[in-house]
Amino acid sequence: MAPHSKFTAEQVKMMEEYREQYLECQAVGDYTLFWAPFFEDYHARWPEREHVFPDVPLDVDLTPEQKVINVSMVDAHKKQLVHRFRNMYGNYSAKRKLKAQTTSTVEKMLASQLSLKGTRTLQPAEAYSKLYYKTCIKPVVDAEMKTEEDDDTSAVGSDVKQVLPKTLKLSLITKHTRALFANETPEIKAEVA
User: Rounded to whole angstroms, how far apart are CA atoms 141 and 175?
Assistant: First the structure.
């Protein structure tokens, strides 16, 4: 069973009147304009002094010791009111939503950074290779590889066919790509860059 409420039905009704203002301040994240008028109105309707010192009339000044006790009780009651608003109107859930949004944003940012891992901008000759490999570079490389294979088979014998190593093929591609790119027209170089 839930514990007995610290607030009367009238006090809860008064808090409901301030609900919209609280939610507006919550959306902005700044409660400074909310709490001062709310506490002033609340304590004007239900002075803490009536509960702490019921035998002292309101028109009589309190002693210094009584004032200290009254101030500490007012502060404690303000904390209770703040907690009541936070619990009833979801300050914590708003923070959770904000945290979730921030977390998802950070995760997206990290994912994009991870997807970029290992990428760099291409050198002009590499970009040229990406654009013109099939049409310009591959025929020249294939022709040179054929001559290399022919030279190797004639040295070993026509019965045995040797395959060129991948490193040799890659070095031929790199060599011819750079040479062909250096001899290209300025228009193609501008397109690649």
Answer: 9
